[in-house]
Amino acid sequence: MEYVVAAVILLVVLLAGAIGLVVPRMRRRELPPSETGGDTTTLERPSAAEPGVETPPLVVPAEVDEGLPPLIEAPVEEKAPEIERPEPTAGRLVRLRARLSRSQSVFGRGLLSVLSRDHLDEDAWEEIEDSLISADVGVEATQVIVERLRERVRVLGTRTVAEVREQLAEELVAALDPEMDRSLRTTPHDGRPAVMLVVGVNGAGKTTTCGKIGRVLIADGRTVLFGAADTFRAAAADQIQTWGERVGAETVRGPEGGDPASVAFDAVKRGIDTGVDTVVIDTAGRLQNKVGLMDELGKVKRVVEKHGPVDETLLVLDATTGQNGLEQARVFTEVVDVTGVVLTKLDGTAKGGIVIAVQRKLGIPVKLVGLGEGPDDLAPFEPAAFVEALLGSAA
Ligand SMILES: Nc1nc2c(ncn2[C@@H]2O[C@H](COP(=O)(O)OP(=O)(O)OP(=O)(O)O)[C@@H](O)[C@H]2O)c(=O)[nH]1
């Protein structure tokens, strides 16, 4: 009997010992973050609950921590977006002239090779005419230009290529009506900002152009606010807002599918409150044959004009659509009073002569030209620099 009692006591003592050894190992708890800085990762340590037992934190250097998921998220540093400084606008067309190289090969090189012939006979004049027409100058304008050039060559007895080239350049510049006012009305007046409405068919590059115009104005020292009244295309408001953020300009936007006129109204109101120089309003790309949509554009203008008249209404036209684009453009001019044309994508066409056709057909000055997808690839239009770029050199 005593043996049994002794065995039981021994068993109990052994069991207690085993439990005493095992339980502290199982009880582990999470530690507060290490004070050793960001270069280390704290894992965990056994409980220090037992008095008098100081257990140092278990830390591993970051470089041996590869593959272990971080236990404590490092705080993400919020970086303020960098504000860009757009390129100055003066002389942009000259800087971007190489972008017209496609046009130049049709318009310039072809013409110059004809002009360099010893004798300008009937065939040569016909070739000159064809070159101008295929560069989208338009039949009517071409006939006027060629007629005047022929007359000058005959009367003045011009002979050298350089002289004929010079006279052709003068005729092309004249066809572009260099006296037209191409300035943008963007100065605030009567205690409110200048208001610019940007219209045109979808895909012409309207939203992109709004962003680029904002940069042109900022480069010229103005402050700008964007109105994202293209509530029709979901991404358009994000697009214009991103353009704005890059140059530190605010964007007023409304709910997707909301009333564009109300967004435009709010944008001008915000512009008045914040005292910016110019409010640039992007409108939905609408097809001119959809009467309802065109009415909507008229409404945007009327509602904005509750604050005062719109100072500038720019029609954005895609140069690559050629003569077709002109028909679409005409409808816009009937709904809103277009004060200037922005001809985009001139870098993507061999038909740079469209500038002449647009101005002639619409009787509205081309004020800006788009020569690429870069943020500063929009240049104030200058007839003489443009013609020089198209013709290239006689060499
Ligand atoms: N190569 C070239 N591409 C351009 C130019 N201007 C605009 N684009 C491009 O044309 C495309 C259409 O531009 P958007 O600004 O989205 O056109 P949108 O008229 O606002 O279109 P909607 O909002 O649908 O009416 C984009 O890929 C632009 O980068 C230009 O001068 N040259």
TrEMBL record:
Root EC class: hydrolase
Family matches, as Pfam families: SRP54, SRP54_N
Cross-referenced InterPro entries: AAA+_ATPase, P-loop_NTPase, Signal_recog_particl_SRP54_hlx, SR_rcpt_FtsY, SRP/SRP_N, SRP54_GTPase_dom, SRP54_N_sf
Enzyme Commission (EC) number: 3.6.5.4
Keyword Protein transport: no
Main subcellular location of this protein, as a coarse class: membrane
Protein name per UniProt: Signal recognition particle receptor FtsY
Lineage: Bacteria, Bacillati, Actinomycetota, Actinomycetes, Micromonosporales
